[in-house]
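Annotated sample (chain length 285).
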Amino acid sequence: MNSNHFRKPFFSNNKLLLTCATLTLFFACLINQENKKPLLVISKQESAINFNNNFLIFVSAGNKRLITDLLWIETLIESDLEHYRKNDLNNWMYLRFDAITVLDPLFYENYLYGGQFLSIVKDDLQGASRIYEKGIIHYPDDYHLNYSAGFNYYYEIGDLKRGLVLLDKVKFHPKAPTFLPSIVNKLKFEVTNDLGLAFELVSHHYQTTVDEHLKQRMKKDLYAIKAEIDLKCLNGKKEQCQRTDLNGDTYIYKDGSFHSLTPFIRFRIKRKNQNVPAESITTLK
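Output written by the structure step:
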């Protein structure tokens, strides 16, 4: 029997399959190019990897400082600006900073800059207070830690008692500004939002930090505080009002009232279980 009788149909079918596969691939590529694919966005909070502190101690095998440096550098590189307000101490950056406190309890920068980043950028107030408190245990008389922690408690969390204790502790510190003692004395009797005091405290905080993300955030707060003070003065037709904002731009008079050139969000103390309005405005009365 001639074997070519069987081979011819076989090769003929293969050519057909190859042709179909080629056409299918061509149309698949065409559809892929012409149609936009949905973007898959995963937040850093969901994708970050954190290890149990006891596990890190175990695997470090005497190389705690090396693991600490790697965690610190990686955290700074991967840091995000997304707010975290759950107050469950599960923020990925807090877990990283907390792990570093266990591996290297004397890592000063982790307490100071970690606490500032959590409080000001991430808005993780509880996480920041935990990091600050751990730092104060090891550096009880450090000015910057006590000041930052006191500011976080008083103006961010609204724990006036703890905030005043920390601020009062360093009001005569050599690094403290000359006006801090008078501010602390006023804060002891202060139960309302005094924007003038807030501006002085935030301004000092802005001048003493070196982190650019923190400075940008605090500059927005400073702009908002000054704008609210000035606009209330101008629109209230009071005397000796400042007519320029933090950027040096003159306030604009229109529709019967003064407005700022740049919209701002009013600075308010974040009290526990209290939602603070976050709408942008340009005028106040």
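Annotation: The two ends are 104 Å apart (CA to CA).
Annotation: Residues 50-124+131-139 form one domain.
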